Amino acid sequence: DIQMTQSPSSLSASVGDRVSITCRASQSISTYLNWYQQKPGKAPKLLIYAASSLQSGVPSRFSGSGSGTDFTLTISSLQPEDSATYYCQQSYRMPRSFGQGTKLEIK
Amino acid sequence: EVQLVQSGAEVKKPGESLRISCKGSGYSFTSYWINWVRQMPGKGLEWMGRINPNDSYPNYSPSFQGHVTMSADRSISTASLQWSSLKPSDTAIYYCARVITTRPYHFDYWGQGTLVTVSS
Description:
A: 11 strands, B: mainly beta, 7-stranded mixed sheet
């Protein structure tokens, strides 16, 4: 099975900051990497698919990069509504797997 | 508008059976697989498996194989997840999510989640 490891597990940043979250796969997954945002009490929401493609309706301050085993989700200018937990997920091989999540708080 | 609407919260006792459902609308139900994802209290997301609504063929995560059964009825655009004998450790929120049957296989729409509580 492919293991997904995110870092950091949590972070705190200020409005307007540039924030990055990394995700590492235990083996190469090409660009089959997706990012989701989950707010408390809500279902996850797709932000980025195929490592760098922005899902329709998602603000352009979100971007994704990477290939192989190392990936990054970047928020260019943090907004208050970005407070959430972020998960990466590989769709390269079954069983699908998620990272453990990164909790982002706004200072 | 694409929607996945899940059945309501359930409270069950250990050993009881349960079926929860996920109804798709606003799209061609047979063009997307339905996936199930578990989220235990305060924890992360775990992929349980997926079902192909065209032929009801499931793929289970090894972690859930034998513990749950997935099914689909394309005539009513509904997928189901069922347990024959619940355990307290099954207490969680269960989400359904659709994924198109071609790469790159991302979960683009999710249901609102069904909270299952198993307690004596």
